[in-house]
Design goal:
Layout (H helix, E strand, L loop, with lengths): L3 H20 L6 H7 L11 E8 L2 E7 L4 E3 L9 H11 L6 E4 L15 E7 L2 E10 L5 E6 L5 E5 H4 L6 H4 L12 E8 L2 E7 L13 E3 L2 E3 L1 H12 L8 E2 L1 H6 L3 E9 L14 E10 L2 E6 L4 E6 H12 L7 H6 L1
Antiparallel strand pairs: 1-2, 1-5, 2-3, 4-8, 5-6, 6-7, 7-8, 9-10, 9-14, 10-11, 11-12, 13-17, 14-15, 15-16, 16-17
Protein name: Permease component
Length: 330
């Protein structure tokens, strides 16, 4: 009998450990999980007309207007429709790795009585939400529930990481917005120099249609022209945009100017081309940023000085550029 005591104790300890691990979902069949992991909220993304984030008591609501998305309470804040669409895709992709409890009576047990975060969408007049509670015993996962239901899920934090965003995360990051194929002229000035990139008319019998751009009077290829334009077009911001009137209060002076001539090509060659339009931008130095703003807009976009200088250097490194003194000597 004494010989059997150690074995009996080991079996008892093993049984207790197995019960604890099973109750806390340590033994999840990953293959079964991958097959059966249901999304918490099913919704048609194209029908979503509002999203709301409430993270640690800080709410943010975005509402879809007739043409674009707006921040509630700050309607003219510049938003990126792509960023909003990406968030909705992330929201509808959140899946429950496993069901922790189907009919949970005590949400406080999971930290869901006062959720750390609540994410919601409005689809066809119906509000759908995901609430996030405390951490589960499994590293990298949290408790969650959908639509205030009683079922508690275990959800991967990686599924939720893309939902935790600020207004700036939804903001438009590109100061210059225009279609590259519509550019007919790109002229900018900086420190007393002007750089004028033009698309020249292509002759019908031209042997090389790619050689139809000029930079300060020197011929450049279409590929080179696109590269130069994109040096500015691809500039992005890494901090919040500010209202344009803040620049005037600061006393910032214009240091850079840009005029872009745009003209969409006619879809039908037999139809006349649309009238060309001009977009004008100004750049204002403030701290270590140059703030870019479009004429008539209410927001200014801060581009760090080093990135802006790289764009300028791209143009200055091109062999086709000559300053005024060199041109006059000729």
């Amino acid at each position: 009998m004494k010989k059997l005591m150690p074995a009996a104790l080991l079996l008892m300890v093993f049984g207790i450990l197995y019960w604890y691990a099973s109750s806390n979902h340590f033994f999840i069949d990953t293959d079964k999980e991958a097959e059966a992991a249901p999304v918490l909220v099913k919704a048609a993304a194209e029908q979503v007309d509002a999203i709301e984030l409430d993270i640690e008591g800080k709410p943010l609501k975005l509402v879809k207007g007739k043409e674009d998305w707006k921040v509630q309470g700050n309607e003219d804040y510049p938003l990126s429709s792509y960023a909003v669409s990406d968030w909705i895709t992330t929201f509808t992709g959140v899946a429950g790795q496993s069901v922790v409890e189907e009919e949970a009576a005590d949400m406080a047990k999971y930290g869901l009585d006062h959720p750390l975060a609540v994410y919601s969408i409005r689809e066809g007049g119906n509000v759908r939400r995901i609430e996030i509670g405390g951490n589960t015993p499994v590293p990298g996962t949290v408790y969650a529930r959908a639509d205030e239901g009683k079922t508690v899920y275990q959800v991967s934090e990686s599924d939720l990481s893309g939902l935790k965003r600020s207004a700036f995360d939804f903001a438009r990051k590109e100061p210059l917005t225009f279609a590259l194929e519509e550019v007919r002229e790109f002229e900018w000035s900086w420190e007393g120099r002007t750089y004028d990139l033009k698309k020249e008319p292509t002759e019908g019998n031209s042997a090389d249609e790619a050689e139809n751009w000029s930079l300060n009077g020197n011929k450049v290829t279409q590929e080179k022209a696109a590269s130069l334009i994109n040096a500015f077009r691809f500039l992005i911001i890494d901090r919040e945009p500010e209202r344009a009137d803040a620049l005037s209060e600061f006393g910032a002076k214009q240091a850079w100017s840009l005029t872009i001539t745009l003209q969409p090509e006619a879809i039908d060659p037999g139809q006349p081309e649309e009238k060309a339009v001009k977009k004008r931008y100004g750049g204002y130095m403030k701290e270590e940023y140059i703030w870019l703003m479009s004429e008539g807009e209410t927001w200014a976009y801060p581009v760090d000085e080093s990135s802006f200088n790289e764009a300028i250097q791209t143009w200055q490194d091109d062999g086709g550029i000559q300053d005024e003194s060199q041109s006059n000597q000729k």
